[in-house]
Amino acid sequence: MAMKLHEYQAKQVFADAGVPTPSSQLASDVDGVLTAAEEIGYPVAVKAQVQVGGRGKAGGIELVENEEEAREAAESIIGMDLKGYHVGQVLVEEAVDFTDELYVGITMDRGEGKPVAMVSTKGGVNIEEVAEEDPDAIAREHIDPAFGMHPFQARKAVYDAGVDKSVANDVASVLTTLYDLWESRDGSDTEINPLMVTAEDDVIAADAVMNIDEDALFRQPELAEMEEEAASGGDELEQKADEYGFDYVRLEGNVGIIGNGAGLVMTTLDLVDYYGGEPANFLDVGGGAKAARIANALDMVFSDDNVDSVVFNIFGGITRGDEVAKGINEALEQFDEIPKPVVVRLAGTNWEEGMEILNEDLVTVEQTLEDAVERTVAYAEEVNE
Amino acid sequence: MSVLVDDDTRVVVQGITGGEGKFHAEQMMEYGTNVVAGAVPGKGGQEAAGVPVYDTVHEAVEEENADTSVIFVPPAFAGDAIFEALDSDLDLAVAITEGIPTQDMAKVNKRLSETDTRLVGPNCPGLITPGEAKLGILPGNIFSEGKVGLVSRSGTLTYQVVDNLTNRGIGQTTAIGIGGDPIIGTDFVDALELFENDDETEAIVMCGEIGGEDEEEAAAFIDEHVDTPVAGFIAGRTAPPGKRMGHAGAIVSGSGTGTAESKISALNDAGVPVGDTPEEVADHIEEFLA
């Protein structure tokens, strides 16, 4: 899983490494935006700092020419809800006059098990769309992680992409810096889109993407601190899941799902769909969950207003059925009336012990995954009749 | 017959003095696995789970003729532990550890191309030849001896499908959990090739999930090279794009690659029926064996 830095954070990291970036200031209210714009000089871009793609299309980026426009943009963007994310801060940035927009980026090619450097002269648009519609427009150079990117590889990618000779060396140098950051900071993606080319043949990073491998944050303390800031925003339940340390994804439906192991939880979601229901969430309690963790999982799913019924499916390997049963009892015995029907299916390690402990007055028990899901979907339908 | 592991396999457990390492070393031995040594830096000369501990894997190979390693080393050190295993002239290394930094695995992946040692995992439950030996954390009691080879990216989904098979009296030759990370050692194609060349394996179950293109590559390989009948299952049909479903590798990218539809249709085109439910997978296998 990747931790995404905000644009302003990534730009700071890039700028510190020597990548040219436009002058910019962070602001969190209208006065801050006006002061920043005054200092930088109009025209400026006012850019919402949330980690979702397509900010421009969603109204999160405005180019403004004067104070009046700046005020309007600040008022509309700060505090807005952008694809489910609250905008608390904007970046006020010098508007750059450009003649060309390039794309440069480093990512992991999982098929090859190697990093790949990518360069395209079709910057400024969604690069995934370019990759689909015109794959030849992106030059790719695979990198041996044992050696790192050789200088010739950076040059080759830039030449292959057809970047103009007048800026080729500068673009290759930016690409080299991106790879060095990708490697030294445990990036999963480092990307500039667009990398603008000016009439004077300067290159300048008008956007910055830096996603960090979460599994490597233990050796990236500076970036781990940035995560604290970056974590602001996001769905309330998803934040709660973060606190509990669950793998959780909120979905649109009304059937709550709790299980252990990613593949089996995904399968449970698919079965809910197969039996005509709609999954409300993906929640993986992980391996070896103890009673308290199980109780937290139920608490999470209950607190989602969309949920009408819950299926609890545990196939114990290192997770033990008796701990699961204890946790379910613990979570449910605090209620005078169970808020939403819960269907439990226990299998694998210590499932018999679990069945002895489980308070069957509080839940419905099914023996197979298929039966458990079918029953849960039926309960959800009853609620909506 | 079986693949990769049997009762002759001689196992060294890397990280045997840790909680997980010790517990699962004992569980493996209880199942019948021939665990001959542990390897933990600085703990050489001690004993754990009833076997001698060495400072290095090299020593465990020299002194106890270990030919296989099972790795229970914390993620920050697991990349190094895999390199050590690959440097020790073993036949097989099985990395159970979850959460190894991707760049460490990219370097391991490079080294793998230069060595004869096979890697299974990381972030996997391991593998088991029922009635003989298991390497890793799979619960032995749900497996049974038989004729079906099983390969899967997910641990608990493996248990679920095995349960569906065992409940019908259908046993397994070997079950291999290849792991849910973006960069892994043994992949579907490798496992399919092993089962295809195994005389005892008469049918194969392949459990994939969303993300990456391994299932599509496996489908192409089956079309060309596999005569043994294969039944498939793909988890994540209902996963929305851009949301990672638990496993680091289980994500449908914004551009639509890695979808369940793409994998299911690739498998169908290769003549592989894909079950809508684990129960349907067992139906297909029952037909193959009838």
Automatic annotation (TrEMBL), chain B:
List, from the UniProt record, the residues annotated as the active site of this protein. Answer: 247
Report the pathway entry.
Answer: Carbohydrate metabolism; tricarboxylic acid cycle; succinate from succinyl-CoA (ligase route): step 1/1
What InterPro entries does its record include? Cit_synth/succinyl-CoA_lig_AS, Citrt_syn/SCS-alpha_CS, CoA-bd, CoA_lig_alpha, NAD(P)-bd_dom_sf, SUCC_ACL_C, Succinyl-CoA_synth-like
Recorded catalytic activity of this chain's protein: succinate + ATP + CoA = succinyl-CoA + ADP + phosphate; GTP + succinate + CoA = succinyl-CoA + GDP + phosphate; acetate + ATP + CoA = acetyl-CoA + ADP + phosphate
What's a Pfam family in this record?
A: Ligase_CoA
User: Could you give a single Gene Ontology term from the biological process aspect?
Assistant: tricarboxylic acid cycle
The highest taxon in the source lineage is Archaea
**GO MF terms, alphabetically ordered:** acetate-CoA ligase (ADP-forming) activity; nucleotide binding; succinate-CoA ligase (ADP-forming) activity; succinate-CoA ligase (GDP-forming) activity
Q: Which residues form the CoA-binding domain?
A: 4-100
Give its E.C. classification number.
Answer: 6.2.1.5
The residues that hold substrate are 159
- Annotated GO CC locations: succinate-CoA ligase complex (ADP-forming)
Sites where the protein binds CoA:
17-20, 43, 96-98
Keywords, ordered alphabetically: Ligase, Nucleotide-binding, Tricarboxylic acid cycle
Subunit relationships = Heterotetramer of two alpha and two beta subunits.
Q: What does this protein do?
A: Succinyl-CoA synthetase functions in the citric acid cycle (TCA), coupling the hydrolysis of succinyl-CoA to the synthesis of either ATP or GTP and thus represents the only step of substrate-level phosphorylation in the TCA. The alpha subunit of the enzyme binds the substrates coenzyme A and phosphate, while succinate binding and nucleotide specificity is provided by the beta subunit.
Which family is it part of? Belongs to the succinate/malate CoA ligase alpha subunit family.
Name of the protein: Succinate--CoA ligase [ADP-forming] subunit alpha
Taxonomic source organism? Natrialba hulunbeirensis JCM 10989
The encoding gene: sucD
